[in-house]
Design brief:
16 helices; Rossmann fold; 5-stranded parallel β-sheet; 16% strand; alpha/beta
């Protein structure tokens, strides 16, 4: 019961993570569910829904279908839709009901592909895990199916980089991904592919041509490891938040290119001297990268990253923590001078003379509610955001 939430919300589910990962790639994505998951996804989890069309559908699973199985109806409906829409691929992802009745997504996908000839991915999500696992599952399945043998690099001669783990669930559509692309270009890199925003399926299929991979969220780690196994491509975990953070990040990226090693750029950083005690709550890679950027600026005795996803605790530093329950969150917040987290965590916050709460909205947590407040933090943009919350204090 300690892990039950009383005041807080839940993060976006794995099935929505699949839809977010595949949204821009020209595929037909089907949620196998009654109806609820689709409305939650398109109204709260998907900011691109209103200005960029995508083929995301629901299977409209009925109670009698769940009782009797009726996989033939599901297969027939998807095949009929695919013949009409002619997508590049088909992906079918699950929700709690298919999990309970034991739907075999691999077999369903194979039958659909045999009938219509379109590559089909069966993704056994169940709506009970967080969005990161769904994104990771979709990325690796896509890579296994579509990535081509590495081709000789051509064009500008600049190093090619794949950006892995880019979805609006972690970065929204407020400009962070565009600023990230510009940061790479200014330092002489060429974006080979971005998994999966602002890139098409053909660009993703050519991922093996890159010389290095940039893992900007936990959802990109499994894909980076697969690409390393297949093509020998090294990867760097982290996000270049802030000017000093970006300097350290790109130094580490050059090192990865030079010696072919893979690492987290923020590992080993810690606070020095006297200053504030900070707490950052969020996804492991983005939060730990923000911690690194702030520590490099100075003025902090310690910053602790708290990650709500225990499956990705390996991406945290030795002083950081994977959250277990609300009691633990409350205790950590009471010990910090500055708390940086999604505004929903304010429910635990009690004002004090030495304590400040900084809103850092997370689309995968609070949805569209605070989207306009999501800051751009790449390089110098972090300084502008900091000026705002320091002035507020």
């Amino acid at each position: 019961m300690n892990q039950a939430t009383r005041l807080l919300s839940t993060y976006t589910a794995d099935v929505s993570g699949v839809c977010s990962a595949l949204y821009e790639l020209g595929g037909l994505t089907v949620m196998h569910d009654a109806s609820g998951c689709n409305s939650t996804y398109n109204t709260h989890d998907e900011p691109r829904w209103y200005d960029r069309p995508s083929m995301v559908y629901i299977s409209a699973l009925k109670e009698i279908d769940a009782i009797m199985g009726a996989d033939d109806k599901l297969i027939g409906d998807i095949v009929a839709a695919a013949r009409q829409l002619q997508p590049r691929f088909i992906a079918i992802a699950g929700s709690p009901i298919p999990m309970l009745i034991g739907t075999d997504f691999t077999a369903v996908a194979l039958e659909i592909e045999n009938q219509c000839g379109i590559p089909t991915l069966g993704l056994a999500t169940n709506g009970m895990h967080e969005y990161l696992s769904g994104i990771s599952m979709a990325f690796t399945a896509l890579a296994r199916r579509f990535c081509r043998p590495a081709q000789p690099a051509s064009g500008s001669g600049r190093p090619l980089v794949n950006i892995l783990g880019a979805t609006p669930l972690d970065f929204s559509v407020t400009g962070n991904i565009e600023a990230l692309h510009e940061a790479f270009r200014q330092r002489g890199y060429e974006i080979n592919s971005c998994w999966a925003m602002n890139s098409d399926l053909d660009q993703l299929a050519n991922a093996g041509a890159a010389q290095v991979n940039a893992v900007i969220s936990s959802a990109g780690l499994a894909l980076a490891q697969w690409l390393q196994e297949q093509y020998g491509t090294p990867y760097l975990v982290g996000v270049p938040w802030g000017r000093l953070g970006a300097a350290a990040y790109f130094d580490a990226l050059r090192q990865a290119l030079h010696d072919g090693s893979s690492a987290c750029f923020y590992s080993g950083l810690s606070g020095q001297g006297s200053g504030k005690q900070g707490l950052i709550i969020g996804e492991a890679v983005t939060a730990a990268s923000l911690k690194a950027a702030l520590l490099l600026q100075g003025g902090w005795s310690r910053i602790q990253t708290a990650c709500p996803f225990r499956d990705y605790a390996s991406l945290l530093g030795p002083d950081d923590i994977a959250l277990e329950d609300e009691k633990q969150i409350r205790q950590l917040m009471e010990e910090a001078d500055v708390i940086i987290a999604d505004p929903i965590y304010r429910r635990f916050f009690k004002n004090g003379k030495q304590r400040q709460f900084v809103d850092w909205p997370h689309e995968a947590y609070s949805g569209r509610i605070y989207r306009r407040q999501i800051p751009v933090c790449i390089e110098e943009h972090l300084d502008l955001w900091q000026k705002g919350w320091l002035k507020e204090k």
